[in-house]
């Protein structure tokens, strides 16, 4: 090979090498840009993409090591389904579908689910199955829904007709349980039973309102023990001793969601709207100047109390949806906007790649059990506070979606 040919060959190799490196850099930059979550997106999508980034499989939320049927994950997946309805982006529906496929086999059997545990929490994740069944027509989803409905047929009740929270908590109704069971029950009876169970669904709200309402504040206590045998129960009324924001938030979300399915001419519909207005009026009184609400709703900045994310998100959702549906007056839309602004400013943190995190989420709270939970003020403020706990993820997306309407 002569010198000129050799120079041309080496030059060509250099060009090819340069193009290879350039292409690699472009691909790397493209890949990097794919991993960046744009701040131009709505908050609902920014949160959803952040969740997916941390947990490529939905069951990995909360750093779970294996999949499980779980009310918190069900709530998160329901928010992804709602986000899909708004954006039509299939990645959100596929994410929720992936969770369902990991927990329900082809026979319709639900992973780690035992009907005779009679745990009302286990009903909640069933809400995601309606849309999945509609879109896929896979029998597994219908069978799973029928199983959950069967639980409600035989679920133990208080003497006055309210569902126990769990078999291990006899004669107890918790505010949480209204959200876990009632919206699924309402949608199921609307779709499959011609609405025959709406009187029974309304009965659940009537019982919890009658037995947990505090006339002084207008707030609802976290739980009620009909037997008055639990150590946390007031010996005269059976109520637990404190107001927990997330439990009230569960109740308010339950009201707004059940009303989606209750016929407009049903005689109990007006009563549920009245309940929503009454609790909204009480909750609004305790909104902090930041727009947020405290862990123990009525205790303000008492030592140890803190502005809690999940309860604040649930109140924002209920206020915004209540206004959007015409159940609540305009002042609640304004309160919802103040609340969401407070969440973003005070509780959201941002990474350099656009990933967002929700802080100050109460990890869990309940009553009784082992170790024993006494429902005291000290108990509620002493439970773990976490970042990106699943209780704070789904309600954030749902609240954002309502405010984007």
From TrEMBL:
Q: Hydrolase: is it a keyword of this entry?
A: yes
Q: What is this protein called?
A: Glycoside hydrolase family 105 protein
The organism sits in which domain of life? Answer: Bacteria
Which first-to-last residue range defines the signal peptide? Answer: 1-28
Q: Which GO terms describe its molecular function?
A: hydrolase activity
Per UniProt, the keywords (alphabetical) are:
Hydrolase, Signal
Query: What is the originating organism of this protein?
Result: Flavobacterium procerum
Q: Is Signal one of the keywords UniProt gives this record? A: yes
